[in-house]
C-alpha cells in the first residue's frame, strides 16, 4: 500500500470500535501495488482511506514521559 501524495497523521482522542485512545491514525489516497521485478501493477485505488495503528503501551508511556519532561 503506497500513499499518493502526503499522509495526514493524527490520533484517536477517545477509544472507539476502531481503536484505543491515543492510537495513531493515517489518512491519504492509497494505491495497492503488486510489484514483480521492475514491473508495478495497481491492483486497487483507495481514495481517502484511513488506517489506525495501535501504539504499544510501553512505547506510548515513553513518548508521554519525553513530552512531559521537555
The shape, in one word, is elongated
- Straight-line distance between termini: 35 Å
Helical/strand content category: alpha+beta
Strand content: over 45%
Mean pLDDT metric: 76
Kindly report the spatial arrangement of strands forming the biggest sheet: 1-2-3
The ordered H/E elements are: EEEH
Strand element count: 3
Estimated helix fraction: 10-25%
Main sheet attributes: strand count, strand direction, barrel closure: 3 strands, antiparallel
The total number of structural domains is 1
Q: Would you identify the regions where 5 or more consecutive residues have pLDDT less than 50?
A: 57-70
Radius of gyration: 16 Å
Supply the number of helical segments: 1
Keyword list:
3 strands; alpha+beta; 70 residues; 3-stranded antiparallel β-sheet
Would you write up a description of this structure?
With 70 residues, this protein is α+β, with helices and mostly antiparallel strands. The chain has one domain. Helix content is 19%, strand content 54%. The chain has one helix at 57-69; strands spanning 2-11, 24-36, 39-53. A three-stranded antiparallel beta sheet has the order 1-2-3, with no helix packed on it. The protein is elongated. Residues 57-70 have low confidence and may be disordered.
What is this structure, in a nutshell?
The chain has one helix spanning 57-69, and strands spanning 2-11, 24-36, 39-53.
Amino acid at each position: 500500500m503506497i500513499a499518493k501524495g502526503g499522509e495526514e497523521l493524527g490520533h484517536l482522542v477517545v477509544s472507539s470500535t476502531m481503536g484505543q485512545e491515543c492510537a495513531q491514525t493515517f489518512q491519504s489516497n492509497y494505491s495497492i501495488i503488486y510489484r514483480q521485478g521492475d514491473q508495478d501493477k495497481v491492483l486497487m485505488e483507495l481514495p481517502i482511506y484511513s488506517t489506525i495503528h495501535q501504539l504499544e503501551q510501553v512505547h506510548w508511556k515513553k513518548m508521554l514521559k519525553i513530552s512531559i519532561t521537555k
